[in-house]
Amino acid sequence: MEELKAVPLTAERWGDFETLFGPSGACYGCWCTHFRVPTSDRKTMDGGAKKEFMQARVAAGPPPGLLGYIGARPVAWTQVGPRSELPQWNSPKTVSRPLDPDDAEDSSVWAVSCFFMNSRDRGKGYSHRMLSEAVNFAKASGARILEGCPIERTKQSKSVGLYVGSLNIFEAAGFSEVAKRKDGRPLMRLVL
Description:
The chain is α+β, with helices and mostly antiparallel strands. The chain contains six helices and seven strands, in the order E-H-H-H-E-E-H-E-H-E-H-E-E. A seven-stranded mixed beta sheet has the order 1-2-3-4-5-7-6, with helices on both faces. The chain is globular, with a radius of gyration of 15 Å.
């Protein structure tokens, strides 16, 4: 069995991102814009507009996350980057809001906000590897804090609701709970 390899998503790899996300744009046509675009704006965008937004973001750089490959086949995605790029993740109404409001603009405070794998590739442990690579990527990019807001339980281990990651992968990677604003959704932190 080949090992999963993770690399930053750059414009040259857009085609692989598109392949992984498929014609529907991953989770209900999101194209990983859920936390990047304010809700009021996102509601006016169709799938094509969300795809264009993300493609422009990737082209502008720096990489907004990591693509995971088995051989040449893209199998996984993890969105990781500064909190400042994720207005919906920082919203005062969300469970992922920062402990200190200034963290929302601090370029050294990062977030691991999304994971995506095709249904056939879920349940194989790829999210553990992708989170490990996200930690390495954040550290190498100058982050001093990395946060996640995973879900504690789902009805199925392959649930699409795991797009925020599962509690057990964050715990296994050394993250600690720093807040819980809603049952089942802890804010987790790793000091790098």
